[in-house]
Amino acid sequence: MLPVLEGEQGWRLCLHHRDFLPGKSIIENITDAIYGSRKTICVISRHYLQSEWCSTEIQMASFRLFDEQKDVLILLFLEEIPSHHLSPYYRMRKLVKKRTYLSWPQAVQHPGVFWQNVQRALQTGDVLNENTDLLTGPTVC
Question: CA-to-CA distance for 65 and 38, rounded, in angstroms?
Answer without folding.
Answer: 11
